[in-house]
Automatic annotation (TrEMBL):
PROSITE patterns linked: PROKAR_LIPOPROTEIN
Signal peptide (from-to): 1-27
Highest taxon listed in the record's lineage: Bacteria
Key word Signal present: yes
The keyword Signal is assigned to this record: yes
Protein's recorded name: DUF1795 domain-containing protein
Keyword set, alphabetical order: Signal
Region (Disordered): 35-55
């Protein structure tokens, strides 16, 4: 380990160098990039209330929800466990390609809450690169719809975000919806989440 005197001397030299640079009369001409040159995150998608034509209704068993009208799918999957369908949502520019993916599926009525969580954890770990759960929250969407939302990190660096919703109606049926992508789109996430509903008795 370095002695404290060595560390203190190094810190002092670094500070002197910093002050000298700050006091120089010749400022670097291109030290900072122009704001216009820095890539900006895409604007959030407008929700169903702001842009009704930009959304379309679909169902997962007895649950109804809205998905973006420009989503491609559903694409059927026979080997993704309880996830039986997926949708791809394009980016806002051609070079972005598919910016988000949605996975949907069902669990049989009578599946316990802990059992549902275990299934989701196993499936997401198998299908989503570097999946790591970070948070979980539950609430009643309405008198007929209960929701648990699981937030997670994923991706090559483990820094991208995604969400899984477990929704249950009065019949005990559980629907699964997972959204993940290369960027965070609060408008997309909220539009999907707020539309999830079962009718009374379903």
């Amino acid at each position: 380990m370095r002695r404290r005197t060595v560390a203190a001397s190094a810190s002092a030299l670094a500070l002197i160098g910093l002050l000298t640079a700050c006091g120089s009369s010749d400022a670097p001409s291109k030290a900072l990039a122009e704001i216009s040159d820095v890539p900006q995150p895409p604007s959030p998608r407008q929700g169903p209330q702001e842009d009704p034509s930009g959304w379309q209704e679909t169902t997962i068993g007895a649950m109804r929800l809205l998905l973006p009208a420009d989503a491609t799918g559903p694409t059927a999957h026979e080997d993704w466990g309880q996830y039986t369908s997926s949708y791809d949502i394009p980016g806002q520019s051609e070079e972005n390609g598919a910016a988000h993916r949605i996975l949907t599926g069902q669990l049989s009525a009578g599946t316990s809450a802990n059992g549902a969580r275990q299934v989701v954890d196993r499936l997401n770990s198998l299908l989503i690169e570097n999946y790591v759960e970070i948070d979980r929250i539950s609430w009643d969407q309405d008198d007929a719809t209960g929701i648990e939302r699981i937030a997670f990190y994923w991706g090559p660096t483990g820094a991208a975000c995604g969400w899984t919703w477990l929704t249950a109606g009065n019949s005990g049926e559980i629907a699964i919806v997972t959204l993940f992508g290369s960027t965070v789109d609060d408008g997309l996430r909220n539009g999907i989440e707020e539309s999830m509903t079962y009718s009374e008795g379903e």
